[in-house]
Amino acid sequence: MTTAAPTVGARQLRTALRGHASGVAVLTAATPSGPAGVTITSFTSVSAEPALVSFALAESSSTWARIKDCRRFGIQLLGAAQRELAERFAAAGVDRFAPPTRWHTGPHGVPLLDDCAAWLVGTRHHQLGLGDHQLIVCAVEHVRIGSPGDSLVHLHGGLHGVAGSDVTSLR
């Protein structure tokens, strides 16, 4: 049995990581009670061959409670102009898919937001409970590239556009 080493407190860790820019994405899934989604900054590429990506959600998240049994997920990479969309999907107690949110049903019935920098649809490949979060690895089955533009990042507790991103090289 492995014993975990003592760790710093959550507040100290958050303070240290505030200066580390993270890309902003919205995670979506089709649930029996309708579409669910949440803004995430934990999205990362895991492997190119096979195509695997990951994200982590707090077990205390109301969105986690809705999507924990979903098999497929949509991951929308957001552009700098989508700050309000990211804020809406981060807010509690609102219907995130109600107007002005524009969305459509994508492959396998996964809800996908309109006008994003890129969309990925993947199937749960692996799940691991780590601390107070669940880490989900998805096998990417579909990718669609949107219009090129600036990226949206989370930095110093806020959302910021970052110029110079170019997704055209992915086409």
Structure notes:
The chain is mainly beta. Helix content is 13%, strand content 44%. The strands form three sheets. Strands 3-2-6-9-10-5-4 form a seven-stranded antiparallel β-sheet. The protein has a three-stranded antiparallel β-sheet with strand order 1-11-12, with no helix packed on it. A two-stranded antiparallel sheet has the order 7-8.
Please list the strands of the largest sheet in the order they lie side by side.
3-2-6-9-10-5-4
Q: Proportion of β residues?
A: 35-45%
What is Rg?
A: 16 Å
The level of helicity is: 10-25%
How far is it from the N-terminal to the C-terminal residue, by CA? 47 Å
In short:
With 171 residues, the chain is mainly beta.
Reconstruct the topology from this structure.
Elements: H1 10-17, E1 22-23, E2 25-31, E3 34-40, E4 44-47, E5 52-58, H2 62-67, E6 72-77, H3 83-90, E7 103-105, E8 111-113, E9 118-130, E10 133-145, E11 151-155, E12 158-162
Antiparallel strand pairs: 1-11, 2-3, 2-6, 4-5, 5-10, 6-9, 7-8, 9-10, 11-12
